[in-house]
Design goal:
The chain is mostly helical and 100 residues long. The protein is 59% helix and 6% strand. It contains 4 helices and 2 strands. It is elongated.
């Protein structure tokens, strides 16, 4: 694994404090990681977590809070904690109905 997700939450906090744009890079990594988790979940369990169930601002706030509370953990761990809070749906609900 590479990218911002491998950094500790303390590093995320420092990066975010020094440059607010850093949060964008971290969050883009988070969205990609959660999308990958969904691909694996669909292929294995025929289900996925609804990444759009909460706003991006709410998700970023969750990650900031989580990292403040867990500075020694990785940002990836926080992203996984966020992912687990999102509603789980069977994959067939993601497919369009016939004739739509």
């Amino acid at each position: 694994m590479i990218g911002p997700g491998t950094k500790t939450c303390a590093e995320f906090g420092r990066d975010y404090t020094e440059d607010r744009l850093a949060e964008i890079a971290y969050f883009l990594w988070a969205v990609g990681y959660m999308s990958g988790l969904n691909l694996a979940a669909v292929g294995t369990f025929h289900q996925y977590n609804n990444l759009g169930a909460t706003s991006q601002e709410e998700q970023k706030a969750f990650l900031r809070r989580w990292c403040n509370e867990h500075p020694r953990e990785t940002y990836r761990d926080g992203v996984f904690a966020l992912y687990q809070t999102l509603p789980n749906l069977p994959f067939n609900e993601a497919l369009p109905k016939k004739g739509q």
